[in-house]
Amino acid sequence: MRKSLIAGNWKMYKTPRESVEFVKGLKDAIKTYIDRDVLICPPFTSLTSVAEALEGSSIKLGAQNVFFEDEGAFTGEISPRMLKEIGVSYIICGHSERRNIFMETDEVINKKVQKTISSGITAILCVGEKLEERERGNTFNVIKTQVEKCLEGIEEAASVVIAYEPVWAIGTGKTATPEQAEEVHFFIRGLIEKSFGKDFAERILILYGGSVKAENIDSLMAQRDIDGVLVGGASLKLESFLRIIDYKK
Fold it and tell me: Active-site positions?
């Protein structure tokens, strides 16, 4: 049985002080679970202070982005080695905002995934189609291309999580129905099985991201191939994030 993952992506929100205040409240209120992990991904400026605030808890720490070299003359970039030293155990690679705002290609994302994994950190690879791609019936072609290109050269034993995030549902209030999300998750698991084998396909976690909120978490998590969620706006408020973490199947 796969252990689910509830991940909060804070994007460009919360100062270090605000981040620590939130984490303290989360630690005080969160229950103990044996069937799910909780992950928060603050901005880079808050990672060190949040890592210290998380000490003694089971809550995991993630970063929202990374560069694909250990060090060098890359002004403004941060390496996996730097992140690992401060306690980061997950890194988001290829979020749709990185793809669409910062023009990251599948090839660049593949380098980030490979470097993250080789550094001993779990990569969360994000994939997803735009509204026009879905309306043209190209959802599965887009997902297939992204998964295959971004996981090129990855070994079967790699520490990787996939997050399906339909771009048309991110921050729009629109959400793929549980059935729509499950259809794509099932498709992704099939792609993984073809490339890496059934055992790996059954182990890999596939998260859903796209306007996840307290009102729809239970129905999403009731789907067979949805192993968790990558939460944006609803992870910024303690009450809503706690309800998402405490989903009921």
Answer: 95, 165
